[in-house]
Amino acid sequence: MKRILVGLVLGALAACAHTQQPPAEARQPTSAPAAQPPAPPPAPAASTPAAATAESTTPASVYFRFDSADIARSDAETLATLGVLLAKHPEMKVKIEGNCDERGSEQYNLALGQRRAEASRKYLEKMGAKPAQLEAISYGSSRPRAQGHDEESWKQNRRDDLVPNSLPLR
Q1: pLDDT (tens digit, 9 = 90+) per residue, 95-115?
Q2: Measured between alpha carbons, how far is 170 from 167 in angstroms, rounded to an integer?
Q3: CATH superfamily of 4-17+49-166
Q4: CB count, 10 Å around CB of 68?
């Protein structure tokens, strides 16, 4: 089920907020320490006050590699934009729903989904969101977006969905 997130992307980024596909390659699990998230991109600049508060409707998900909770550079812009928006609108709240593909035990997938949601939460906080605005929860593999049992389906299921439970006012 697709989640629609209203008010996530500033007018200037609405067209490109989520046109990217999840990473093409999957990596095998390793015991290497987790990499640090990529440096946040510069905050988007609005050309007019109206553009700064423009609302749009766009799917809001960030995707992960196999067995990873590292934020991909291709998704950092989506999180950075949301973090800036949350900083400007303290009344807005977002639930970050961590999801996994079907591989792995239920317990492992719940833990991995939580690590993914927490990684996005920490990134949003670095961009200016307050902890009280964010809720991180894991659904493990219980909410697949794609029902197949192949790499393409698994890519779509390794994600965080960013769901608002309140929207900024104009």
Answers
A1: 999 999 999 999 999 999 999
A2: 9
A3: OmpA-like domain (3.30.1330.60)
A4: 20
